[in-house]
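I hope you will forgive my troubling you with a question about protein structure. You will find the record immediately after this paragraph.
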Amino acid sequence: MSNHTFLLMWDCNGLEFCVDVTQDEQQLIWQSLKTGSVSQSKIPNLNHLILRAKFNPQRCYEIYTVDAVAGVTSNDIYDMFKFDPQNSADRVRQIGHQIYSDRLSTNTRVIV
């Protein structure tokens, strides 16, 4: 059983984007081998996600990749963020790989 890598993007309003990068890339490889043609990935360009985050700094976007054991789906991660968003974000920050973060620290806030 192999691990799956998920690409996650969330902001102050919750999880906005979650995709199983491993599964999508494997499907693209098999599809291109079967048909002989290369198709476009369903994964959006990472630069587009980063640009979205940079042009909306008021939303405090964070983008991470995180590994999960086989059997975990993107729906499981959406549910995790839906039912316990703060602990979910904290856990991904601990075990994931940060790609981008506009996270506000409580030290910089004048009024809380």
Observations:
- Helices lie at 21-35, 46-54, 74-83, 85-95.
- The chain has one domain: 4-101.
- Strands lie at 4-11, 14-20, 62-68, 97-101.
- The longest helix spans residues 21-35.
